[in-house]
Structure formats: structure tokens, C-alpha cells
Amino acid sequence: MADALQKTIRPVQFFTLSFGCIIGVGWVVGLPAWLQLAGPGGAALAFLAGALAMMLVGVCYAELATAMPVTGGEVAYVYVLFGTAASFATGWFLALSSIATTAFEAISLGWIAAAIVPGLDGPALYTVAGEPVRAGSLAIGIAGTALLTWLNYRGAGAATRIQDVLTWALLATSACFIVVGMAAGSVDNLRPLFSGTADRPVWRGVLTVMATAPFWFAGFDVIPQMMGERAPGSSLRLAGSMIMVSILVAAAFYVFVIIACSMIMPWQELVRLPMPAAEGFRRALGSELLAQVVLAAAVLGLVTTWNSVFIFASRVLFTLGRARLLAPAFGRVDRRHGSPTAAVLFVGVVSAAAVALGRGALLPIVNVAGVCLAAAALLICIGVVRYRRVAPDVVRPYRVPGGSLTAGLAAIVCVLMVVWALVEPALTGGVPLEWIVLGGWSVLGAILWVAAGRTRTVIDETERLGLIVERATGEVH
Fold it and tell me: CA 10, CA 30: separation in Å to the nearest integer?
């Protein structure tokens, strides 16, 4: 069929897509901030608590993903449960978070490449937010975006095969430096375990790191986005379980990285180094090889996240276009490759353009994406309770343990994360950039919603429901 996506993804590939999306390059660039805010013990505690919170959310995603195994994830679920306007808003803000994250990875690629090969970033062209944008980094980011766009244009099969190789390579290289760091380091370097000052008590630092969990664990939601491309005959329950597996493995990764890097030298000295996760091994252990292994793991994590988030962004736009909530072109599928061509090209073009902003755009991306993802997760948690009430007879291959109580607790966690992520930046004074970005994106979304009024009325809601919720037959539960 002309509008059919490829159906090639098996449960183990759902893991590599999800875990590969979660573990990007953020652990390299974020490590000094985590340690300064909370110390090694506090940062590890924050990530464990964040993982627990995300698992509460993850089981809600797993129930809806296996009950409605369709492409589009949150956009489809919210449409069924809360209607057209809520579905558009969810998709619009997910598009913000996912496209911004693809730009984050493109910008970071040039940065990491220059750390591996000094001088590769080239001369400075101009400055954005106090950070120079260099010719080499700009070229590397745009070239990487072009390659990823071409790969995704060829369909999910090609993209997931590459993802498999890169994710297992990421796990292998990471295990090398983690084991060496913990074996050669000293527990004395972890002291004090918690970081606190008169202006920022220990609990605030831990809570601040934990509140960013939606960003650092973002990626498990790529599984619901891709459920409509699951290989025939593969288990729905097993595919849904990969959400929790990927969160657990990611939590272990973060905690071991924090501990291993903090053990190689006093962490108060480590945070002052440029790119400390790599530089710490070079200076403390005198190992250029280990420093390069860390950077290699960073590149692998960057590419796996980049690929997964690119897929995520294109599927969000595809679902909105297919439902006529955006231009219909976004919902069309290439006859030869089975990929959503217009959506893929749009993500590629916008991401390439955003590379021109340089490293000055990285911090706002983290905060804004975290708010958007936590808000979407809130709707999913509420949606589990609602769907059980309005459709109690629907087959649910994976069910939330504890039912509505667990879903309600997960919803409360999401609310707290959204509130803290919005309030904490304002504690330093002034209007946070995050508020400005979210406000501007909201206004733009409202304009597009009004402008697309005629497009939405081309089909009625019954037909729109059929376009969004395409159920496969012969499911294996």
C-alpha cells in the first residue's frame, strides 16, 4: 500500500532504539553540572529516584502502547482519549522537544569531534549567546544531519539495523572505562558524597537533578511511536516490556558513570576540567587511550540518540499530517522505501538550520525539552485511568501493576517535575529563557491551529480516528 510504513522492528530492536535514544552525549557534557549541584552521591541518588519516577510513567506508556499498537504514540493516544485539540497540542510540543534535541545532537557532534581531533572545529565565524560558532563544527553538524536524513528516508529497517550495531558498541566501550575507573580509582575521591551550600542546600541540588529526569531518560517513548512498524508475529507484551528494560539499563549506566568518573580523582577538581569525563582519565591515570574510549562512547551515544530522536520527530509529524492536523503532505509515505518522506525532510532541514545556533543553544534545549516531555507523560498517565473506564474490554497485553493507583502516582510525579522545571530557573531572577521559548512556541502553534482550520474539516472525526488508530491484525500477545 502507498500509505503503509515498513513493519520490520522486533522487540530487541525496540530496546536498542529506546536505550540508544536515552543514552546520548548528555552524560559527557552534563556530568560537571550534576556533581556541582548534588555531589556524586546526590547525583546517583537523583538518577535512581528519577528512574523510579520514569518507570512509573513507563508502565503507563506500555499499557497504552500495547492496547493501541499504532504509529504516533502520544499523539494517537491523546486523540482517542482527549480529542482533536489536545492531540494537536501534544504533537506540537513533542515536535518542539524532539526536533530541538536533533539539533542538540548535531551541534554536539562538532564539539565532540573537535575534542577527538584538536583543531577540527576550525575558525570562529560568529558568536551566539557568548559561544563561538566555528566553521568545522558547523560543517560536521550539517553533514551529519544530511546523512541521517538520507538514512531515515530509506525507511525504518535501515535506520534500526544501524541502531543495533551502534547501541551494542556503546555498551561495550562504556563498560571498558567504567570498569577501569572503579578498579583504579579511590572511594576517598567521592567525598563529600553530597554537595550543598548556604544558598543551595543539599535537598535542592538533588531535586534539581532529579527534575531533569524527563530529559535524561527521554527516549523510551520512541517505542510507542514505532509500534505501528512492529514486525509481524512479534510479541506485543515483550515489545512493551522493553520500555522498562531500557529505563533500568539507562539508570545503571548513569549511576556507574557518575561513580566511576568521580573515583578517578577528587570530584571537586574533576568538575573544573574541560570535558571532565574524558580529561579526568587522561590526567589522573595518564591514559590517552581511556580518554579516547570515553570520547568514542560519547560519539556512539550521540549518534544513537540522534537517530532515535530523528525517527521520533518524523513520526510525530507523520501522525499529525495523516490526521489532517497539519498539512496532509506530512502524512504521505514513500512508495519505494515506506518512509514518511515530507516529515523526514522537514526534520532534516529544520535541524540543519538550527546547527547554525551553535553551543549557546544547548542549555535551553535541555530545559524546554524536559518540560514538554513531562507534560506529555502527564496526559499519558491520566489517559491510562480514562481508557480503562471508557474501554474496559480492550485487550491489554501489558497492564500497569497496581492499576489506577500507580497511574495516579505517576501523574503526580509528572506534575511536580513540570512545576519544578519551570520554577527553578526563575529562582535566579529575571524571566527565564525557557518561559520565552515555550510562550513563543505556544503562540506559533495557536496560529497554525487557526490556519489549518479548513484542512481539518476536509475529513470528519470518524475518518480521522481511522487514520490515527490503524490496528494490525494477527497480533501475538
Answer: 32
User: Rounded CA gap, 161 and 164, in Å?
Assistant: 5
Name the pLDDT band for 8 (thresholds 50, 70, 90).
Answer: low
What's the number of CA atoms in the CB half-sphere (13 Å) around residue 85?
Answer: 3
Q: Is the peptide bond before 201 cis (omega within 30 degrees of 0)?
A: no
Q: Which domains does the chain have, with CATH numbers?
A: 12-465 (1.20.1740.10)
C-alpha cell at 200: 543551595
Q: What is the DSSP string of 285-353?
A: S--HHHHHHHHHHHHHHHHHHHHHHHHHHHHHHHHHHHTTSS-GGGG---TTT-S-HHHHHHHHHHHHH
Residue 126 in 3-state DSSP?
Answer: strand
Question: d(Cα 335, Cα 464) in Å, to the nearest integer?
Answer: 22
Q: What distances in angstroms separate CA 242 from CA 217, 343, 398, one per listed residue? A: 14, 26, 11
Which pTM value belongs to this model? 0.76
Confidence of residue 7 (pLDDT cuts 50, 70, 90): low
Provide CB contacts within 8 A for 161, sequence distance 6+: none
How far, in Å, CA of 183 to CA of 136, rounded? 37
Spatial CA neighbour of 255 closest among 16, 19, 31: 31
Instruction: Determine phi and psi for 101, rounding to 5 degrees.
Output: -70, -35
d(CA 99, CA 206): 28
Q: How far is CA 344 from CA 139, 312, 327, 431, in A?
A: 20, 10, 14, 34
| CB 270, CB 250: distance < 8 Å | no
The x, y and z cell numbers of residue 249, run together, are 539499563
